[in-house]
Amino acid sequence: MSPSATSILNDFNTFFFSYGIKVIVSIAVFIVAYYFAKYTFKFLEISARKMKRPLKYPNTSFTMIKVSYLSIATLIMLGIFNINLWPILASLGVVGLVVGLALQQPLGNFFSGLMIFVTDAVNEGEALDIDGTSGVIYAIKLNHTIVDTWDGKRIYIPNTKVWSSKVIKFWPKVARRVEMEIGVPYSLNSQELAKITGILKKVTDEESLVYKGDNYSKEENYGPVSNYATFEGFGASSINFKLRFWVLRKDYFDAIEKVAVDIYKAFEIANISIPFNQLDVHVDGKIG
Q1: How many domains in the chain?
Q2: Cα 104 from Cα 110, distance rounded (Å)
Q3: Beta-carbon contacts of residue 168 (< 8 Å; ≥ 6 apart)
Q4: Cβ neighbours for 82, distance < 8 A, ≥ 6 positions apart
């Protein structure tokens, strides 16, 4: 072997044993950290299930655990390479200020995410509206809250916006009130008109999908409710009433449809029609 080849081989051996092994160990540390995070999350999930207290936000919890373990792995990697960050940070000077300004928004999102996580401002699985974006929370990440919209889109909203915007929760409790407007014709006499609220109330009383406040429980957010109908006013083409009734989340769409059909049937039995907008045109003088 020539002297130059021997020198190259010696340089390679020196480099490999000086840095190659450290690189391999660092990669192994990150792999181990990832699997530690994965199995730690599984352990928490199983424990929570056994205690009958399932995790409120599994995706977010896994993200936080993974970041924690990977942060520890990063510190170990810096120790393996004997890297001291303080001199580097001290020497950045103006560059550090520029970098700090550039990271202002990501850091704001990160700390807003922590506040959301700690305060339970929003949770995975909740149906809500965030500043005009409606859908179900899929996950709360370090920088973004992920929302699956009703039409199948997935939107990433910065956590600073989630934290500072008005948030409307559609189902803060199990039951939610629905308002349904109903019009009746002016052809009804006063006795028939006086029966309308009773007919509407009877519909809600007899419909099983309408929530009546059963199983009252503060823990489950069940509570007493009131289903009622009220007179709303004299409209352009009808006398208007409004029916207010409560439904459980699982029955929301089915209950609205069923109540509408029940009202229609009840009006048919009472020989009451549901009017539509009409326009009477009066023509003065001769045509032609």
Answers
A1: 2
A2: 10
A3: 128, 129
A4: none
51, two tokens? 């205690």
pLDDT tens, residue by residue, 235-261: 888 999 999 999 998 899 999 999 999
233 in any annotated domain: yes
Give the span between the Cα atoms of 162 and 223, in whole angstroms: 29
* Average pLDDT score over residue span 253-273: 94
**DSSP E strand stretches across 131-257:** 133-140, 144-149, 154-158, 167-169, 175-184, 228-234, 239-248
Residue 134 lies in a domain: no
What is the domain extent for residue 48? 3-83
How many Cα atoms are found within 13 Å in the side-chain-facing hemisphere of 132?
Answer: 1
Domain's final residue, options 56, 83, 110: 83
**229, part of any domain:** yes
Report if pTM > 0.70: no
Measure the CA angle with vertex 58, ends 55 and 63; round to 5°.
135
Q: How confident is the model at residue 150 (pLDDT cuts 50, 70, 90)?
A: very high
Within 233-273, residue ranges assigned H as helices are: 252-269
CATH assignment at residue 179: 3.30.70.100
Nearest CA among 113, 28, 14 for reference residue 63: 113
Residue 10 has which token pair?
């010696």
